[in-house]
Amino acid sequence: MSSSQEISDFTAAVYTGTVEGYYYIAAVTLLGYHYVLTMNEEIEHIFQKKFTASSVIYMLHRYITLVFVIYQWSPPPSNLVCTDAEFPLDVR
Question: Which parts of the sequence belong to the DUF6533 domain (predicted)?
Fold first, then answer.
């Protein structure tokens, strides 16, 4: 494989990761916006009434999604981050 091919593959990989990051941020923003918009209805219909099985299922579904998104967005623990990695592509 030629050096220019390696560079273009690397550029495509970086671009793909950047676009995926933008999509993820957009999705998280929309999810947060939805949570903020529906908070009044949730307080009125869920929290101010007696808890039933359906309200518990609703809350589990709603807040497990939020916990999952926050977990996915959080950085990895520092002991899992590789600090001595060599860059596989020499672009001098």
Answer: 22-67
How many residues can be counted in the chain? 92
Packing angle between helix 53-73 and helix 3-37, nearest 10 degrees?
150
The tokens for 85 are 């990695």
State how far the Cα of 39 lies from the Cα of 77, in Å rounded to an integer: 32
Tokens of 79: 């002991």
| Residue 87 CA: distances (Å) to CA of 32, 77, 84, 91 | 36, 22, 10, 10
| Tokens matching residue 74 | 């959080």
Give residue-wise pLDDT tens across range 16-44: 777 777 888 888 889 889 999 999 999 99
The pLDDT assigned to 43 comes to 92
